[in-house]
């Protein structure tokens, strides 16, 4: 294991513990700031995520956006490939998507212009530490090579880390939204 791999694993472990504590604290209606941030983008193709474990929940804001345009959720590909997104709407039929995820049972491909990104840790410069598979880094690189994409990190404020171990391939976020703040790097 390289030093950077070890350092990232340690940073993830600390961030997961902070995220668990924030989730257990049971913040009420954290999605309201995300909803406000998304308002100027309603009608543009959007992709979010279905929260797993202690991730902050973007679904209420995604449901609002789905009333105005396409909303997708990720389909996890084989390792080394970027994500694709399948159209989602509140109450749509779901199926097992692998890796502990659920995906819409059917739906069109959505190519997002706005992407709500889950994360393990973030910094105020737009840095993001993910789960380690590089899926969102590859996805953002591919999307940004084709068209402008706004990447919005969504996390509990407790996931902030001012000393993230980042690499050149780690795709930056344009905004970070927490339950209490909108951070514009």
UniProtKB/TrEMBL annotation:
Protein name (database record): 5-formyltetrahydrofolate cyclo-ligase
Documented EC number(s): 6.3.3.2
Reactions listed under catalytic activity: (6S)-5-formyl-5,6,7,8-tetrahydrofolate + ATP = (6R)-5,10-methenyltetrahydrofolate + ADP + phosphate
Family: Belongs to the 5-formyltetrahydrofolate cyclo-ligase family.
Transmembrane segments: none
Leading EC class: ligase
GO BP of this protein: folic acid-containing compound biosynthetic process; tetrahydrofolate interconversion
Cofactor(s) recorded in Swiss-Prot or TrEMBL: Mg(2+)
Keyword Zinc tagged: no
Organism placement in taxonomy: Bacteria, Pseudomonadati, Pseudomonadota, Alphaproteobacteria, Rhodobacterales
Alphabetically ordered keywords of this record: ATP-binding, Ligase, Magnesium, Metal-binding, Nucleotide-binding
NCBIfam families: MTHFS_bact
Entry's Gene Ontology molecular function annotations: 5-formyltetrahydrofolate cyclo-ligase activity; ATP binding; metal ion binding
Origin species: Rubellimicrobium rubrum
Presence of keyword ATP-binding: yes
PANTHER family cross-referenced by the UniProt entry: 5-FORMYLTETRAHYDROFOLATE CYCLO-LIGASE, ATPASE INHIBITOR/5-FORMYLTETRAHYDROFOLATE CYCLO-LIGASE
